Amino acid sequence: xxxxxxxxxxxxxxxxxxxxxxxxxxxxxxxxxxxxxxxxxxxxxxxxxxxxxxxxxxxxxxxxxxxxxxxxxxxxxxxxxxxxxxxxxxxxxxxxxxxxxxxxxxxxxxxxx
Length: 113
Known about the structure:
Number of strands: 4
Low-confidence stretches: none
Number of domains: 1
Structural class: alpha/beta
Shape: globular
Radius of gyration: 14 Å
Strand order of the largest sheet: 2-1-3-4
CATH class: Alpha Beta
CATH superfamily: Macrophage Migration Inhibitory Factor
């Protein structure tokens, strides 16, 4: 926790690009003074079948799942820095979007071994 889920369609075609995307998230996280990097989990989900009715044929969408309590300013810092970093790192991708999702701290449970 926090979870950074990178969804993509026709955007990250090689292992090197997958690693670059995850490292781009990691680089952004280093700048957040309200999040411990050691607690961050990043994963990538490819979509081979999708339809964008606006005609775009590639996308990256990042969902950031964080425990509730962060300010709007913190959330804006996360979304803006990720968007800017991904736009720079993946210039050919036609759509890049970020969504911040608050998780209910009372209901979130996990076990580590």
